[in-house]
Amino acid sequence: MLLLTMCAGMFLVQLDVTVVNVALPTIGTELGANLAALQWVVDGYTVVLAALLLTGGALGDVFGHRRVVLAGFVLFGAASAVCGLAGTAPWLVAARAGQGLGAALLLPGTLAVITHAYPGHAERARALGVWAGVSALALSAGPVLGGAIVAAAGWRPVFWLNVPVVLAAAVATRRLVPRGHRGRGRADVAGIVTAVPALGAGVYAVIGGSVFAGLLAVVLAAAFLVVERRSAHPMLPLDLARRTAGANLVAAVMNFVGIGTILVLTLYLQGVRHAGPLEAGLEVLPLFLPLSVVAPVSGRLVARFGPRPPMVAGLALGASGMLNLVLLNGNSGYPALLPTLLGLGTGMGLLTTAVVTAAVGGIPPGRAGVAGGINNTARQAGGALGVAVFGTVAGDGSVGGLHAAGLIAGALWLPAIGVTLAGVRAPRDNPVARAG
Q1: HSE-CB for 276 with a 13 A CA cutoff
Q2: Distance of alpha carbon 369 from its chain centroid, rounded?
Q3: How far is Cα 141 from Cα 350, in angstroms, rounded to an integer?
């Protein structure tokens, strides 16, 4: 029950990714929002989430992950209710940012609670497989559930659906998660003050094309590194960042392609193929269902062989599926899209559990929140950048846009195989994993 309760946090975060994508055309029509505004409906959430994940993980290590997870549920639920009441696109984007704040507390907190509850490598890998499988189930349920709700009652109830789930999860968290002890360290205030605007400015520079924001991000990032090098209780221990760099780079590339592709396919199915919200939700199921089924299996594979083999297989399958988009033409029907959906879904199913395990496996429990925060920051920042780049290059959903998406994915995922082989370590407490 504790594991499933923590999975509820990830379920909500992932559900709102795919639910919102399916609802974007309807939101655009009702609120008069153009493509750029719709991109910000997605990225208003992911930018804040990416910018604050390190802070959420560090605060959990200091004040206790139970407290931080509860705060995350409260914030996420309140912001979801405000999303459902939004009357303009800027209002909706601001409320989505509030959801991102709650999610930034939930993601590293739930991951740290699971890491503490399952200290052995094999059992932790299986638990993370369940965690990843439930999150993948949210991605699978999102398009169909969102499409059905939008078709029957409009887009607002899509957000209101979160509120009762949050209430139930918060009650369960209070009953099931041990209070634990506060960490011995203190909050790294200087690190928070420099990290949050550095990450936010960096993502905004890519999305908005702002040179000033890019320069500001570089200056703040340099200041953050100086602060962390000198801090007695750094939010981002540099040795930990170096140790997990390979896994987190692959995690960022995974979400860059995966989340960006979801946006492009949603616009293609509804804008070019003229599918309704529910029909589009059903048509993307071949992407999400393999992800849901394979993620728990990947947990067992990681427990047996270590993270590298599933990561390599996932990257190869996903890249092959995305390169299939280059073969499409104006006369291609829906069956021609299936190899992409199945390849990407299976590839991400193999990758998700493996990259998380590679990032947090073998990390001491006292640093689990920071390790989880680093990994989730990489994933969410990658997803935010993916929405921005794919939305700009292939956002019209045309066949030419699909070709561009396929080439970008291949150019990123195939080299990531080399990064995996060279830079991903197996957890030290499993000799079989070391051999893998």
Answers
A1: 10
A2: 16
A3: 19
